[in-house]
């Protein structure tokens, strides 16, 4: 076993031993402002791998009501939006957006992205969500533009898929 595997295994063992409240506190940031996801996942302990924990949490989201799923999507901030401008993003969202260079947009790029965000929200009724890790701000803007052509149902499912990716990145960072 590598040191990384041992550390992750120890973290999962500790996580699995927590009571429900502590478990939720530890994992509340994995799904943006949605503590109900780890709350409902707690009953599936013990978790022997990050894959198992992630799959359990994603399944909780899949089994949630449409309204809960929509609220989860709407809990995500717009990229380079008012939360970023006001400094009210979660720590995880701040780091993710910074990593994609969204904090370095020129005035023209910022105007384009905010315009695309507005078009997207107008068309679909919820914010554009994408796992930005590994993407440039240009790839992100091009993706918003391309996804504007999708149906509402396709976009709803795309957002949930992207939220699952974001959750995995956050779990990996937490448990590494």
From TrEMBL:
* NCBIfam families, per database record: UHCUDC (TIGR03164)
Q: What is the lineage of its organism?
A: Bacteria, Pseudomonadati, Pseudomonadota, Betaproteobacteria, Burkholderiales
**Pathway assigned in UniProt:** Purine metabolism; urate degradation; (S)-allantoin from urate: step 3/3
Species this protein is from = Alcaligenes faecalis
Q: What class of enzyme is it?
A: lyase
Q: Which UniProt keywords apply?
A: Decarboxylase, Lyase, Purine metabolism
What GO MF annotations does this protein's record show?
A: 2-oxo-4-hydroxy-4-carboxy-5-ureidoimidazoline decarboxylase activity
Gene3D superfamilies membership: Oxo-4-hydroxy-4-carboxy-5-ureidoimidazoline decarboxylase
* SUPFAM superfamilies with a match to the protein in the record: UraD-Like (SSF158694)
Determine the domain of life of the protein's source. Answer: Bacteria
Report the protein name in the record: 2-oxo-4-hydroxy-4-carboxy-5-ureidoimidazoline decarboxylase
For this protein, the Enzyme Commission number is 4.1.1.97
As its record notes, the protein acts as a catalyst of:
5-hydroxy-2-oxo-4-ureido-2,5-dihydro-1H-imidazole-5-carboxylate + H(+) = (S)-allantoin + CO2
Gene behind this protein: uraD
GO annotation (BP), single: urate catabolic process
InterPro entries under this entry? OHCU_decarboxylase, OHCU_decarboxylase-1, OHCU_decarboxylase_sf
Oxo-4-hydroxy-4-carboxy-5-ureidoimidazoline decarboxylase domain location is: 17-172
């Amino acid at each position: 076993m590598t040191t990384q595997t041992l550390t992750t295994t120890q973290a999962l063992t500790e996580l699995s031993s927590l009571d429900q409240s502590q478990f939720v506190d530890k994992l509340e940031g994995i799904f943006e402002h949605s503590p109900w996801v780890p709350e409902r996942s707690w009953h599936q302990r013990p978790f022997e791998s990050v894959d198992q924990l992630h799959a359990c949490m994603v399944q909780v989201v899949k089994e949630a009501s449409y309204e809960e799923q929509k609220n989860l999507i709407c809990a995500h901030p717009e990229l380079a939006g008012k939360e970023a401008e006001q400094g009210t993003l979660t720590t995880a969202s701040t780091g993710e957006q910074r990593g994609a260079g969204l904090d370095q947009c020129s005035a023209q790029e910022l105007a384009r992205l905010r315009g695309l965000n507005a078009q997207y929200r107008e068309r679909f009724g919820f914010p554009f969500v994408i796992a930005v890790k590994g993407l440039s701000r240009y790839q992100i803007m091009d993706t918003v533009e391309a996804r504007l052509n999708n149906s509402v149902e396709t976009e709803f499912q795309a957002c949930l898929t992207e939220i699952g990716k974001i959750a995995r990145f956050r779990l990996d960072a937490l448990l590494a």
